[in-house]
Amino acid sequence: MSQPDRHLLVVDDDDRIRDLLREFLTRAGFRVTGAADAASAWRLIETLDFDLVVLDVMMPGEDGLSFARRLRARTDQPGRTPVLMLTARGEAGDRIEGLTAGVDDYLAKPFEPQELLLRIEAILRRAGPRDVGPASLTLGDCAFDIERGELSRDGAQIRLTEAEVELMRRLARSANAPVDRLELARDTADVTGRAVDVQVTRLRRKIETDPKNPRYLQTVRGVGYRLAPD
Predict the structure, then answer these.
(1) Last residue within a domain, chosen from 98, 127, 156
(2) The domain boundary residue, chosen from 127, 149, 170
(3) Under 8 Å between Cβ of 80 and 98
(4) Where does the chain show beta strands of DSSP type E?
(5) How far apart are CA 63 and CA 11, in angstroms?
(6) Residue percentage of the chain with pLDDT more than 70
(7) For residue range 134-192, what is the model confidence (pLDDT) as tens digits?
(8) Burial (CB count within 10 angstroms: exposed 0-12, middle 13-18, buried 19+), residue 217
(9) What residues have CB less than 8 Å from 129, skipping those under 6 apart?
């Protein structure tokens, strides 16, 4: 799987650190979603797949150690999601406590961003490739080839813009799971999400029998959009 397909969840209650990590890791080629606390992170994990969680220890509410233990105790997880723990507590006893909770690595603050990146890449190499899912999806009379970025109806190709191809690929990678509208907007020049809304409207005209009552490209109220193939 190529690096741009790697999706990281950064959980830290410090807005400044979270935003800096998101910016740095995005520049490094990852897709990054942020959460300010464990409760927000759980909501994201229930709807999205992540390749790795970057997790702060000291947070209001549920702390990082408790979060890591609960994550490891899940029996419905599609594979074991690696965890890299960040903390200002760098003593040996704290590192042991974190590793006992099931984290894969432990990095004490302050840290060099490049070291964080190298540790993330090492964890992902050890974790190995994840299942890439189906090569194509069926949407009624339509089919979408994820690798080629091609949409067809009954074998006849339907023209897609480059932006529509990327949006379809992003939704297809998380098929049947809601994808945050603003996360989709980060890949466009319009971070408000209006460009995504326009692309969704156009795609529905190409895919749906009744675009005003979509069956396959659904709106998830308060979240974003979901691709629901047959």
Answers:
(1) 127
(2) 127
(3) no
(4) 7-11, 31-35, 52-56, 83-87, 105-108, 136-139, 142-145, 150-153, 156-158, 179-180, 217-220, 224-227
(5) 10
(6) 87
(7) 678 999 999 999 888 899 999 899 999 988 988 998 888 778 888 778 777 765 666 67
(8) buried
(9) 1
Rounded to an integer, what distance in angstroms lies between the CA atom of residue 36 and that of residue 207?
Answer: 36
Question: Any idea what DSSP says for residue 61?
Answer: S
Instruction: Supply the pTM of this predicted model.
Output: 0.56
> What residues contact 211, with CB distance under 8 A and at least 6 apart?
201, 204, 205
Q: How are beta strands 224-227 and 179-180 bridged, if at all?
A: antiparallel
Based on the fold, state whether residues 66 and 179 are members of the same structural domain: no
114 and 152 housed in the same domain: no
Verify that 66 and 106 share a domain, yes or no.
yes
**pLDDT tens profile 104-143:** 888 888 888 889 998 999 888 887 665 555 678 999 999 9
Cβ 170 vs Cβ 134: under 8 Å: no
Distance CA 185, CA 27 (A): 16
Q: How would residue 205 be classed by pLDDT, with cut points 50, 70 and 90? A: very high
Q: Are 57 and 87 in contact (CB under 8 A)?
A: yes
**Mean of pLDDT over the chain:** 84
Q: What is the pLDDT of residues 96-108, one digit of tens each?
A: 777 777 788 888 8
| Whether 221 contacts 215, CB under 8 Å | no
